Amino acid sequence: MTAPSSRAGTAVPGSSRGRAAPRWRRPAAVALAAAVAAALIYGTGPAQAATLFTDTFEDGNHNGWSSSGGSWSVTADGSQVLRQASTGADARVRTGQASWTDYTVTARVKPAGWGGAARSTGVAARAQGSGNYYYLGVRNDNLAVLGKVAGGVDTTLASAALTVGTGTWYALRLQVSGTSLTGQVDNGTVLRASDGQFGTGQVGLFGRYAAAHFDDVAVETAPGGPSPTTPPPSPTTPAPTTTPPGPTPSTPGPTGQPVPAGTADGFASVNGLGQNGTTGGAGGPVVTVNSTAAFLDYIARPGPYVIQVAGTITLPTGTSDGMHNVTSDKTIVGVGANATLSGGGLNIGLPVDDATTSPPANAVHNVIIRNLHLTGATDDLLNVQMFSHHIWIDHNEFSNGDDGAVDIKRGSDFVTVSWNNFHDHDKTLLLSHDEDAGAQDIGRLRVTYHHNYFNASDQRHPRVRFSALAHVYNNYYFENSYGVASTYDAAVLVENNYFFSVNNPGRVEFSGDLGRIVERGNILVDCNHPIETRGTVPEPSGFYSYRLDNAADLPTIVPAGAGVGKLG
């Protein structure tokens, strides 16, 4: 959060701006604002409010306000009000001190246009960033709404019927006092709620896909209220509960029936290269291992095996960069919620031979990795290479590897990466390792990435070269440096994902030749750039059947279902 710079429009506690009211305002408007500011008294004892901040924008600027989204400026027509002109953005500005606790923020708000249904504009309090705050707003479905935004997701706490139209000024008053939240519109509608998630923060104004004018912003101290009893969530684990604003997710092309639980989907389910989908070690012996020696023995054996991992197994790091080879027809699955492979990584594929340009007959294939926490590898956590195919990587947790979390390269094909939790990691997903790898990669690297939780992991979600099609759908991106990058003519479909606080959600060029991205149905919240698009890509429905979840539900669905201990 950014505190306002020292200027004429900002006051320190106990002081006020001390500027005369502008002469253009009608007496009725001034009287209305004054009536609203004095309408309600809460708490006990006499009301001894101190002014913390005022801004009437008469100086012709909004210096000291930190903006996120939208188009903000002070009007130059003599009215001297702050205008947010865009109806296509979740637009917010903030000012004040991050340490402010119990206070009342008032402002006049005039809607000027709407970008769709259920759009709103109003004031915010205890803002802890552009994606975490309480708010009071007027909404174009004729409601006054008291709510909160947590992790970029909107939750209504209270609402009341109110006739809402463009061109009408509404006087809004939002008081935060302990866990008590009270809002009032004009001199009538009062909304009350209790919530303890945010205890301090700045004030703000917002136009959620709505253009609006704002004026007469004032902040005063308020009596202390009940102390919060519910601790705020971890910054990497938001708990959204309701649909946020944003574009309506699309469902293009045919949709299919959901794949039965425990069955590979996406590209891992496609028949090809002599393999009928991905079944792993099905039909082979089922063994449970809890030692390093037993684990390394079974993953290297020929033939199908279902290898159940119990507890933590530490993999050696002294040879082959700590990477350990998995042979064909294996299911490696954790028992319970604590199965861990630590120290070394898994390699699915033959030894590297860059001269090979066609899939060898003995390419590693038909491998399932599920319900494991892979962490602390000295190289990759999981590497798929050398024309390996039909690989399903599902419901795992990846963290703290020295290089990639899941790298797929050197002509590998028919892979699905689903329902995984990636956190505390830098280079997350690489698809093709080098700009000179076209001879092996072109026409291959068909990978599905769906329902993964990119939980503050940094970059490569995925970074793609040469892929015939990377289908990236229904993933939840939370506070990442960048999401998807497509280069060297890679074909990437970015579909029905939710991006929160991602600097670059999607780029068609990171380095080297341009790639291709088609995007549809995605929701972007508090992102600095749009998803870049270029060219056309094949439809995944031509390869396999899939069903899309509504992108707005992903902040709830994905953290609840991704990772270990969640196979049910």
Q: Which key phrases capture this entry?
A:
elongated, mainly beta, ten-stranded parallel beta sheet, nine-stranded parallel beta sheet, 2 domains, Pectate Lyase C-like, single chain, 568 residues
CATH level 3 topology of the largest domain: Pectate Lyase C-like
Count the beta strands: 44
Distance between the termini: 40 Å
Please give the CATH architecture of the largest domain.
Answer: 3 Solenoid
Write the CATH homologous superfamily of the largest domain.
Single-stranded right-handed beta-helix, Pectin lyase-like
Low confidence ranges: 1-47, 226-255
User: What is the makeup of the main sheet?
Assistant: 10 strands, parallel
Helix content: under 10%
Any idea how many domains?
2
Mean pLDDT rating: 85
Alpha-beta classification: mainly beta
